[in-house]
Design goal:
Number of strands: 12
Radius of gyration: 15 Å
CATH topology: Pnp Oxidase, Chain A
Strand order of the largest sheet: 3-2-6-9-10-5-4
Oligomer: single chain
Distance between the termini: 38 Å
């Protein structure tokens, strides 16, 4: 399997955009992730895939808790802030403390505060599984990623 064909095929899968946050040793850390999914209703589990090469890989996978923020259509800038290496990704954000000190960001379409349940190896990624302790939702449309760019849902 050549890498370019694999990437091209996966680029045809539309996905939502999340920002995953955790408390690191020097304060909150986070990154943008599109590899996110529900896993189980009983118990309530979700998973997010974190690249091993990510600067915050260990902080996210070793923290006792983490937040998953399902981004709203207007949050492209927030997605970009957490997608690229920047000195202070949290500057100017009203970060709230969730269960087990999980940092929670404002304005998301949904916020999930999760307790680390398990971390599995998955190729060049780690699969971070969290037990959802708290879920909050708001009205709006999701920010999506498809074929290498941000997308919005067409009105139904």
């Amino acid at each position: 399997m050549d890498e370019d064909s694999f990437k091209a095929a996966l680029g045809r899968w539309a996905s939502g955009i999340t920002v995953v946050t955790a408390q690191g040793p020097d304060g909150p850390v986070g990154l943008t992730a599109s590899a996110f999914s529900s896993l189980s209703l009983h118990p309530p589990l979700v998973l997010v895939c974190i690249g091993r090469a990510s600067y915050h890989h260990e902080h996210l996978t070793e923290a006792p808790a983490f937040g998953v923020h399902i981004l709203e259509a207007s949050q492209e800038e927030l997605s970009n802030t957490f997608a690229f290496k920047r000195d202070d990704r949290f500057a100017g954000l009203d970060v709230q403390e969730g269960p087990l000190d999980a940092p929670l960001l404002p304005g998301a379409l949904a916020r999930l505060a999760c307790e680390r349940h398990e971390v599995l190896e998955g190729g060049d990624h780690s699969i971070l599984i969290g037990r959802v302790l708290q879920a909050e939702v708001s009205d709006g449309e999701p920010l999506a990623w498809w074929h290498g760019g941000y997308r919005r849902l067409a009105p139904g």
